[in-house]
Specification:
This protein is of the alpha/beta class. It has helices spanning 3-18, 22-28, 77-94, 114-128, 147-161, 182-200, 217-228, 251-261, 275-279, 318-327, 334-337, 340-354, 360-385, 389-408; strands at 33-42, 48-59, 65-72, 100-106, 137-141, 209-213, 232-238, 241-249, 271-273, 285-288, 307-309, 330-332. The structure holds glutamic acid (GLU).
Length: 411
């Protein structure tokens, strides 16, 4: 089964509960537009390497397409289309005036020099410039991309169009129009979702333990901010391996350790564990913040967490969802749990278009208001329909998408 087929399973379940019109369903089932490009890059040794890149725009019913760009060896058109579909739903759950898009390049960026990475990033923008724009499709960072890459990309786009257009890409460094609070934003959203879920389940966060899979931008910030709430972070991992620390670890120090040693292994007071052990660790809260399809029917039964907050997009397969729902595990779905990033991207875009910049406090306050409201909407809908928070999140998203599609007369 392709990943897009898998992604449509909860969509279908939500549609059945809402009795949605067939036209809306068909529009949801494929992106409006997708593009595949080849990007020639002069490598440092003089060779020319040709990379494949993609951009998918799933929906523009509510507004311009919005979503990140990932650099990863497994990137393919099916994955990018799926991720663009999730962006449509994510933006709709929070009520942002955006549709969904996603892009990517099939590459292992750790094998490129800084110069090669810059030429690849600029080459990608040259190829997709015709279909992105401040009011058309607004990319942002995703797996293995960051502010530095966004700065090269916005610079390349502005050279092509011949004028400033900072709102074409979000997640930029502050000096070229980025927003305060954007770097921490996705992890902050994950933390807020955990905080709200603990309140609903009467769990005292200060007594809770937490494991975080993935220690990139999302995982590391989620770990730090959940730690700041008073929870004990007992396990973390990155691409190279996982560590466990029964007494709890300080994620700020772990991030420094990782920056210095390039691996988490050997962190004082910790022992190495496998990725499988991290996911099934005896914790209150599990935050999968790495890649898709990590929690599957093979390991779902062994999961001990009471709350799973999906920092990554698509970390849980539909089979695993059913197993976890039967066990009573509360999953805060990706399209809600990790929506904090695109929410602050929206604020960045608003600041770019208006040319007026907000304080970090204002960004954080507004983010919290939108995310807490989205959490409440999803939670209430789950109770109302007697369903999981994932299906409820799709119901909340589809209600708004349906209204926009109908208002435009698309079906
Ligand atoms: N890549 C992030 C996501 O999956 C952020 C997207 C954005 O800010 O546009 O939500």
């Amino acid at each position: 089964m392709s990943i897009f087929e898998m992604a449509k399973i909860p969509l279908q379940k939500a549609i059945e509960k809402m009795d949605l019109d067939a036209g809306v369903k068909k529009l949801m089932e494929q992106p409006e537009r997708s593009m595949e490009v080849s990007i020639p890059v002069k490598m440092d040794d003089g060779r020319t390497e040709v990379f494949t890149g993609y951009r998918a725009q799933h929906s523009t019913a509510v507004g311009p397409a919005k979503g990140g760009i990932r650099f990863h060896p497994d990137v393919c058109l099916d994955e990018v289309k799926t991720l663009s579909f999730w962006m449509t739903c994510k933006c709709s759950v929070v009520g942002l005036p955006y549709g969904g898009g996603k892009g990517g390049i099939t590459v292992d960026p750790s094998k490129l020099s800084e110069g090669e990475l810059e030429r690849l990033s600029r080459g990608y923008i040259q190829k997709i410039a015709a279909i992105i724009g401040e009011k058309l499709d607004v990319p942002a960072p995703d797996v293995n991309t960051n502010g530095k890459i966004m700065a090269w990309m916005v610079d390349e786009y502005e050279k092509i169009v011949g004028h400033a257009a900072p709102g074409v890409i979000t997640g930029k460094p502050i000096i070229v129009g980025g927003s305060l609070g954007r770097t921490e934003a996705t992890g902050r959203g994950v933390m807020l979702s955990v905080r709200e879920a603990c309140k609903k389940l009467n769990i005292d966060i200060k007594q809770a333990t937490c494991a975080v899979q993935g220690f990139g931008n999302v995982g590391s910030w989620a770990a730090k901010l959940i730690y700041d709430l008073g929870a004990k972070i007992v396990a973390i991992s990155d691409v190279h391996g996982a560590i466990y620390c029964e007494a709890g670890l300080n994620p700020y120090e772990a991030a420094e350790y990782l920056a210095k040693h390039k691996v988490l292994s050997g962190y004082p007071g910790s022992k190495d564990i496998s990725n499988a052990e991290l996911l099934t660790a005896d914790v209150t809260i599990l935050v999968p913040a790495a890649l898709e399809m990590q929690i599957t029917k093979e390991n779902a039964e062994q999961i001990k967490a009471k709350i799973i907050s999906e920092g990554a997009n698509g970390p849980t397969t539909p089979d695993a969802d059913d197993i976890l729902a039967a066990k009573g595990v509360v999953i805060i779905p990706d399209i809600l749990a990790n929506a904090g990033g695109v929410t602050v991207s929206y604020f960045e875009w608003v600041q770019n278009l208006s040319g007026y910049y907000w304080s970090e406090e204002e960004v954080n306050d507004r983010q919290e208001k939108l995310l807490v409201k989205a959490f409440e909407d999803v939670y209430t809908t789950a109770k109302q329909y007697n369903t999981t928070m994932r299906i409820a999140a799709y119901i909340v998203a589809l209600r708004k998408l349906k209204d926009a599609i109908k208002a435009r007369g698309w079906c």
